[in-house]
Design goal:
The protein has helices spanning 2-20, 28-34, 36-42, 44-67, 70-88, 104-111; strands at 122-127, 132-139, 151-160, 169-170, 180-183, 187-193. By secondary structure, it is an alpha+beta fold. Strands 1, 2, 3, 4, 5 and 6 form a 6-stranded antiparallel β-sheet that branches. β1 and β2 (132-139) form a beta hairpin. The longest helix has 24 residues, at 44-67. The chain is elongated.
Length: 206
């Protein structure tokens, strides 16, 4: 919706500007009055050019709006004041979250950390076999929450064996550089630690 509202406004503004400067007459008002079929029949070149430009605009705008989370921010701008009023006016029902179906991985590892603005979160991963890994988040999947099989990685990892948990092994000292690839089917739980500013002295504690 945002893409088309902004797109139509931009195209009408550009058409008015070009007409005012006597550069080109796009006649978009006739598109609304006569319909798409008549417009393409009367002005085929203008219609085809406008269509191709609009398709390019949609492709680029969709990527930009998603990258900058524009729909989420726009919805939050409306729902934020409504939530504030709902807490003070008991008769006003509180609005639902702007995007309640946001994937949990994305919400925790990206939105809650402000896109890793300062540093990456640290994870304490407990495996079903009893072993534990501690390290920084490396990569995570952009998959739906109902997908049970997800690969993710941690870097600067420390391994705590279930047999000798008091004898941690720092994997950065081992071949491979301390990066561990894990799968959620083998994971019992993942505990997330995030400091707004990098502090190497802060270590997870489980």
């Amino acid at each position: 919706m945002y893409i088309h509202v902004i797109g139509v406004t931009l195209f009408l503004a550009c058409a008015a500007l070009l007409s005012h400067l006597s550069i080109a007459e796009l006649r978009y008002t006739e598109l609304v009055a006569d319909g798409t079929t008549a417009y393409f029949a009367d002005y085929p070149l203008t219609a085809m050019f406008s269509l191709l430009v609009y398709l390019g605009y949609i492709t680029i705008s969709a990527e930009l709006l998603g990258a900058y989370q524009f729909p989420h921010k726009a919805a939050s701008t409306v729902s934020g004041p409504a939530m504030w009023l709902a807490h003070r006016l008991r008769w006003l029902p509180a609005p639902q979250a702007a995007h309640p179906q946001t994937p949990v991985w994305y919400d925790i590892f990206h939105q809650e950390t402000n896109g890793f603005a300062n540093n990456r979160p640290r994870l304490l991963v407990r495996l079903k076999g009893g072993d534990t890994y501690i390290g920084e988040l490396g990569t995570y999947p952009l998959l739906s929450d109902d997908q049970p099989d997800k690969d993710f990685s941690i870097t600067k990892a420390v391994w705590l064996s279930s047999i000798s948990p008091d004898d941690p092994l720092t994997l950065t000292d081992q071949p491979g550089g301390g990066t561990v690839l894990l799968n959620t089917t083998n994971v019992e739980s993942i505990q997330v630690y995030y400091q707004p500013t990098a502090d190497p002295a802060v270590e997870p504690s489980g």
